[in-house]
Amino acid sequence: MMDLKEKIFYFISFAISIFLGLFFPLSVDSQCNKNLVIINFGDSNSDTGGYVIVRGMIGQLPKIRTFNHDLSGRMCDGKLIIDFLCESVGNGYLTPFMESIGKNFTNGVNFAIAGSKTLPKLMFFNLHIQFAQFNRFRSLSLELFNKGDGNLLGDEDLRNALYTIDIGQNDLDGIFGKVTYEKAILKIPDIISEIENVIKGIYEQGGNNFWVHNTGPLGCLPKSLATYKKNESDYDENGCLISFNEGAKIFNNKLQVLCEKLRDEMKNITIVYVDIYSIKYDLIANSSTYGFMNPLMGCCGYGGPPYNFESNNNCGQGNYTICEDRFKYISWDGIHYTEAANGFVASKILSTHYSTPPLKLHSFCNTAP
């Protein structure tokens, strides 16, 4: 029989599932007649387990989930945005590239690793290295697929795949607050250039479909707020750091310009640019309207209000605590969003209101004529 703690856990899990379903419905698209192959590049915002495989640190992550599937290894209390997007087209969750035992890659593969950046390009597991891993995966997958291995991807799968990119947050976090604002801004074109190189590299190998997320409001992260304390005039009306958010906006603007340029330069390419920043800032600014509370405070961490973040007591390490109402929090650990917040963001993404061009995710599936 279950003890009291287990009963409480399952009750809360059930309540969260109902909460997500009622407020942020994510209907499964029935217009796909086969799996949409998704190949993802990114950082912890979309890492489905690669980091813990590489680092062997599963024991340092709180074993708390708000659903019944075994999705351990995420920097979250449950599902990431990429998980919700996969669900929306009836796909299984993406398998990390680093997971090699008994896995099926027919629905795609995930190269994202927590902590990844674009620069320096040769540092593990930054974007350039993820692209190198993709090249190896592609080569071996084609070879084994042609020999009859049904758990891998063929040439048609790779050509029709949707290549998703969500990276840049760690680059920006690594420069803002450590150098002057003016110097930080000067580094952004180099970050954009690395993203451009990867998109072009995939395109040259036959990939035509891209889904690119911009970065969120870095100045609203509890980590940023707790680490880089400023003067009162440095905060906006919602309590976020103005300079960090302005830097994120400049990065996003240049990323959008890149997407527009590549659409003009490359034949038969589709690039959907998704404005994650606007979705997340709206959620923070109107948190109570959407059923959330304490928008600038991490659920899992140390220190209590206003941010519950301390670098020496990260979630999963040190003397951290976990809030009781985590399904009402936006920030899980001061850096990453909760499953509830990720569900909200995913629902807005799927609405296409924040996408340029406004294409639905299922438009990339192989649909019936």
TrEMBL record:
One of its GO terms (molecular function) is hydrolase activity, acting on ester bonds. Coiled coil: none annotated. The chain crosses the membrane at residues 7-26. InterPro entries: GDSL, SGNH_hydro_sf, SGNH_plant_lipase-like. Keywords: Glycoprotein, Hydrolase, Membrane, Signal, Transmembrane, Transmembrane helix. Belongs to the 'GDSL' lipolytic enzyme family. This is Uncharacterized protein. It comes from Solanum chilense (Tomato).
